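Example record used in the benchmark description.
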Amino acid sequence: MNKSYMLLIASVVMLLSGCASTPTKDIVLDAQADPKANFSGYKTYTWLLTAAILNDPYGQWEPPAFDAETRGLFASIGIRKGRKFDPDERMKKLLADGVAFANAAARSIVWYPRYEKNMKGVRVYPDTDSTWLMAYTGRNVFFNGEDGMTMNTDARVMFHYPYTAVTPVMAAPRLGKGSDYAIAYLDSRRQPFDGAKTYKLDLPANPPVANFWAVTVYDTQTRSMLQSNQKYPTVGSNTEGVKKNRDGSYTIYFGPKAPKGYENNWIETIPGKSWFVILRMYSPLKPWIDQTWRPGEIELVK
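Model output (structure tokens):
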């Protein structure tokens, strides 16, 4: 196998992370319509790439959706505007290997970002060993380097591998308005979450929001909400019957079975599947913004 060519394909796939929000025509990506959609396979990646290129409004946008170099990368594996993409068996294998390589690289970046190097701005609480992360490294929605002249490709992957659309207001929390987010891919021991085990998250009393807060679980394979026996894999201040502890704090459980007495504070997980969690704060207040109120770490229940 031509390893350099496989790396080229992997690079093209990784480049998709920076093109995920490119408008396409007649394309529907709806998690509820196809909850088992898996964005790890080469067929899905190349379908997305082909859809983007075929619907590229070449010469109509300024700046263009794709520059000449990007179009050249896509063309090198047979994806060109106005042409059918019809890879032979050899190319299909190269694509599959390239996507597997890129997928593994992206997961390494997202689950274990290099804080000491180019990802130092990704931690929500950098003064501790907390595992809570931001979607936007350094709250930078452009993913450029500190000098403004380079691209932090790891930061771009950190966002576009698990998420989709970019909007500056999501990266700049405003007192009592908008929303802010904290994401955990690892437990307090810095281990990925195991769907067969039980974990808990303690939230201190009086979560500082003017609107509401919510904890939602996602499937690490699809990066869509985890499909389980629950209608929605989420618990929050709007959850009917959510239980407070005596001191006003909340304990949220994650696992295959609900702890007795905490059925309304529980999000079901699936044995054999990993997951990650997003804490959403809608209309965050000062204690969230100045970090005097902080969520606990997600801990394994032994």
